[in-house]
Amino acid sequence: QFPFGRRLPCDIYWHGVSFHDNDIFSGQVNKFPGMTEMVRKITLSRAVRTMQDLFPLEYNFYPRSWILPEEFPLFVDEVRMMKDSDPSWKPTFIVKPDGGCQGDGIYLIKDPSDIRLTGSIQSRPAVVQEYICKPLLVDKLKFDIRLYVLLKSLEPLEIYIAKDGLSRFCTEPYQEPTLKNLHQVFMHLTNYSLNIHSGNFIHSDSVNTGSKRTFSSILCRLSSRGADVKKLWSDIISLVIKTIIALTPELKVYYQSDIPSGKPGPTCFQILGFDILLMKNLKPMLLEVNANPSMRIEHEQELSPGVFENVPSPVDEEVKVAVIRDTLRLVDPQKKKRKD
């Protein structure tokens, strides 16, 4: 680690948060310029919605969404129109602050008029989305999937998807949203950083039990119930590729302004965290993309009030060590030299 920055050339620069170094003239950097901005909730929504307008059938894996505060009147009008044309439609919406992470500031509403417009939304833009009311449940619990995707290069576009990911579970049995249970975050929100504070959270030593499991353990269960796991994987791969295609044009603009072609500069790669929800019918839906997914392989355990220690997490280790190892193999700077 080089807390004061490093000026000597090296093969791989592994930055903690974002691409920020103008003095790197060689080697490979583990971040793309502009990626953090591109996967913020509003920018991602805009990019995917542009593609939805052009290719509605190809991009039907992203929930209907509106950007607040600017599209609030449009949101109100469209919901009213949809309700008029189908009186039986009883939607729920989820409001996510643009820069929020770890579940911070997310809440559910039944009606557009419930949006907390008091000052905060003006200063804190957000995305509001149709909430997916019929998720696939395992052990009566809602869960999402964190998949790790390596964007190895933009030109040519090279994408690798890790074979295993994490399944992160809610800690209260799921019920469809009603006015009474809207605020029950442990039932509706899958964020690990929220559920870890639930009394029902289970730290497990096994990859197929507890509140965080491997995605492969879920696929095994689905397969044993007769689900078409091959089709599910191909739908997920398609969702990942199409999402990255939606982001690519702007990423290239960022890239060329930071690393002009023809000048010496590093090449970039990046591990992205894709958060995906499976619907009851096994259709994958994109929730969000994380530019800086946590690579921690331990969790904090409270030994006594206020006293924490870090305990290894077998599930995280199983998945994340493989992700880092394979990433380093794929970007291996020595490979070319050995071939030569």
Topology overview:
Layout: E1 12-13, E2 28-29, H1 35-38, H2 41-54, E3 65-68, H3 72-85, E4 93-97, E5 107-109, H4 120-123, E6 126-130, E7 137-138, E8 141-153, E9 158-161, E10 166-169, H5 185-188, H6 192-195, E11 212-214, H7 215-224, H8 229-258, E12 267-268, E13 270-278, E14 284-290, E15 298-304, E16 307-312, H9 314-330, H10 333-339
Q: Given the C-alpha coordinates, what overall shape results?
A: globular
Helical segment count: 10
Order of secondary-structure elements: EEHHEHEEHEEEEEHHEHHEEEEEHH
Annotation, overall tally of beta strands:
16
The major pleated sheet works out as:
7 strands, antiparallel
Alpha carbon gyration radius? 21 Å
Structural class: alpha+beta
CATH architecture designation of the domain at 12-33 and 134-332:
2-Layer Sandwich
- The parts where pLDDT drops under 50 for at least 5 residues are none
Mean pLDDT: 89
CATH topology of the domain at 12-33 and 134-332: D-amino Acid Aminotransferase, Chain A, domain 1
- The helix content, as a percent range, equals 25-40%
User: How much of the sequence is in beta strands?
Assistant: 15-25%
- Can you tell me the CATH class of the domain at 12-33 and 134-332? Alpha Beta
C-alpha termini separation:
31 Å
